[in-house]
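pasting for ref. prot 1 ->
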Amino acid sequence: MRCGGSVDRRARGPAERWRPACLALAIARNSPRDASRCAAVSPAFRAATDSDHIWSRFLPVDILQHIPSAVVSTNKKKKEAYLALCDAAGAAAIGKDGGCKVWLDRATGAKC
């Protein structure tokens, strides 16, 4: 994602002066909890926070192949997939026999 481009700085408030791509890059470097909190700052932050770029960074690559396709489908937003994996009832079964369940901590993204 690039942050370049011109923005009319007079027509918007301070938070809206940043391009959505720049906001998304900055927010993605934080925790999932912080990303969710950023959505309350302004409409510009909310739009950036809903970006698939942010939430794909919080999805662990090593368990994605074990997750049912209904949870992480191509037409589903990454934020929805992340939140579905935070639900222990929707935990992904991994391992040869599927005996190990993995889900994510909602605040940190840590595997449980």
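and prot 2 ->
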Amino acid sequence: MGESAMDKAKGKAKEMAGQATGNERMKSEGKVDQAKSDARKAADKVRGKAEGARDSMRDGK
């Protein structure tokens, strides 16, 4: 399980625990953890595409 997937699962668990206990702060922290996971996943995808483009430019010389 990747780091972003673990953050997403941790965030979902926090959100559900916060919802079950009525703890708005924990619920919000869970949503933030999930958003960070999504951002990390998107950044990794962009990084991979940039590296691929760089590599194809090197091979073209």
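The CA atoms of residues 10 and 30 lie 7 Å apart.
The chain has one domain: 3-59.
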